[in-house]
Amino acid sequence: MATQALRTLVVEDDPDHADLLRLELARIKELSFDVAQCATCEEAIDRLNGDVFDLVFIDYWLEGQTSEVILDRIRDAGQGVPVVVTTGANDEYIAASVTRAGAHRYLRKDDMSVPLLREAIRDAMHDAQATSEEAAEVRDARERLDRLTPRELQIAHLIGEGLLSKQIAQRIGCTEGTVNLHRSHIMQKTQARSVADVVRMVLRSA
Question: Which residues lie closer than 8 Å to 18 by C-beta, 6 or more apart?
């Protein structure tokens, strides 16, 4: 059965390395790739803003800039595309730096063999999916909590701290009955099915 080609952007300013990556990708028989290529950070950002990609390979150094520039823009735009950063350097600091910036995998150019490429692609896509699902849960929690009044939101956060109605009433200076009324409104407005749901929303939105 034919596999739909993965729309792949290669951001690389060394033509030889770009060609090597294309050749190694073509050797992964169980996958196919529709590869686009660019050589600068700005061009990469333009391509990512104007098109949808399933996978991105970015060289760590591009015209004196590090790939964190692109990674920051991808993250700020909320794009969940899997990103593999490639580099000729064997530097643990670089690996940690690009991972913090949002790269899903880091691959040395001298390790660009089919098995390692396959593993990097698989892991990057898996991590990107998990990150996307987590981001969706955070957005959902924040949208639900945004429906609350300031007082209801305050009480929701105190519920998130594990406080009981009596304790919340003492904390904010009202009756326990008033807190219970607010709790009822919180449950209705956020469509929470239980207090545990409210706690999860508060924790995810933090």
Answer: 10, 12, 37
